[in-house]
Structure formats: C-alpha cells, structure tokens
C-alpha cells in the first residue's frame, strides 16, 4: 500500500514539474530591455503565470531580471555588463 501511494505521489510531483527556459542576451543590454515573452514561449495562458506562481530564479544575490505575471514579459532589471556579472570568465551563464 505504501509503494502505491509513493508511486502516485511521485507521478503527481513529476507531472507538475518546472520548466527551464534559456535565452542568449547581448552584452550591455539596457535597463528594462525586452528579453522574452515567457507565457508565449511556455505555451501557457497569461492567467496561468500568476496561478502557477511563475518567477525568475537567480543563483546570485542580485536579481537581474523582472517578470511581469500579467503580460508574461521578461525584462532586464538593470543594465547588463558581462565583465561586472562574470569578471573571471569568457562566457557568462
């Protein structure tokens, strides 16, 4: 009985999983520049962004992007400078 419940729980969690989107951006992108329309790229209605609590997750302390849950638009929160964000690397992820 435990195995069946655990299996059902695992299936439900996997079905509701998150999706990762990746974008390439030009260096020194201006503040508030358009990056992407997340709702369109994910193929979900705008109403689902807020309902699913869509958010941008950053590995560092600083949040570089802003997501408008009402429009699905992802923008650069500040001007992006690769040398400032990733000073020791030729590529910046």
From TrEMBL:
Keywords for this protein: Glycoprotein, Membrane, Signal
Domain Cadherin N-terminal intervals: 21-93
Main location: membrane
Listed GO CC annotations: membrane
Pfam families to which the protein is assigned, alphabetical: Cadherin_2
InterPro entries: Cadherin-like_sf, Cadherin_N, Protocadherin/Cadherin-CA
Top-level taxon of the source organism: Eukaryota
Signal peptide: 1-18
Places the protein is found: Membrane
One function term, GO molecular function aspect: calcium ion binding
Protein name (record): PCDB1 protein
Source organism: Spizella passerina
Source organism phylogeny: Eukaryota, Metazoa, Chordata, Craniata, Vertebrata
Protein encoded by which gene: Pcdhb1_1
């Amino acid at each position: 009985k435990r195995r069946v419940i655990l299996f059902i729980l695992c299936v439900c969690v996997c079905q509701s999983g998150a999706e990762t989107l990746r974008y390439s951006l030009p260096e020194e992108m201006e503040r508030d520049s358009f990056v992407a329309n997340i709702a369109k790229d994910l193929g979900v209605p705008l109403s689902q962004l807020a309902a699913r609590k869509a958010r941008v997750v950053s590995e560092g302390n600083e949040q570089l992007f802003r997501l408008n849950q009402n429009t699905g638009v992802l923008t650069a929160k500040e001007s992006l400078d690769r040398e400032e964000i990733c000073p020791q690397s030729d590529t910046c992820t």
